[in-house]
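Q: Convert this sequence to structure tokens.
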Amino acid sequence: MASLPARYHDVPLYCLAIPGSHNSFSFYLDLDSKIDQNSDPIYRQLCDDLGELASKISYRWTVTQSLSLTQQLDLGVRYFDMRVTARKGDKEDLNVFFRNGPNIIRALKEIRRWMDLHPKEIILLDFRVVHKMSSAQHRYLIANMAEDIFRNRMLEYTGVVSGITLRNMWAIDSQIIVFYPTECIFEHICIWPNEHIGYVHPCAQTTRDMVSCLNTRYEHGRPPHLFYCWDGVMTITNDYLANNLDGTLKDKLSKPATKAIVNWVRNKDIRHGEMNVVVADFVEMFDFCDEVIRLNYEVRDLKRYDFESGMCSIV
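A:
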């Protein structure tokens, strides 16, 4: 973001093209981590039917990234799809979602270390899934981010999305925007309710259906004055998994989906600001990040939206 043309420094971030990764922390899952049977009905049935073999199968069908957070950041990813689950009663035992993965606090600290080396880069953390967490656990996680890990770098909530620009954030040394489920934030001053970010998430098992869903939303226009995610991913169903137990998510769904979203992005007219966050599995494939970033170097007509200047502050 630091190297974007100066003409974009005053453009709201929700009108910049930003590469994002789907289920961003899944790189850190491993075969030794046990399946959280309460997380998804598909895998509950798998565990009941196949026992220990289910662990190997689920691993092949849950890992969506093959790069660490640092490697994703180096590649250009600036939006992270966060999924967290509580493994035990201890409020501190919060982990990467689905397979009872590693502790989420350690993963967040990896992001902070990278931020310290790149002070002009802006990162979006979107907690899409917060599973089996108590009020105390939500408070613990939010307090850790605000008071320790991302201290003095989190953008304070103002409710004015159009005021979030590179220039405004640089002026106050802010680097990170955290989105969290509205009902779980307890009105914390530095957390943005997820009502300020929208999604189009195709529930498809073919690239034809995925692209059709994306095109339908694109033709009708995305909601204005929101961050917006275009998810270039496909969805597993019970039937699909049952018919492909010997396959992998990467080969069967992710590889064709990422190739399709890259081609979809290449053919988009971005002059009116429709594009924002574009999300994919295995972000190193098909020059995904480069293709999304390239959109920011096109000549853009931003008259479609009436952008208002706004003040930003941090906590």
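The first strand starts at residue 18 and ends at 21.
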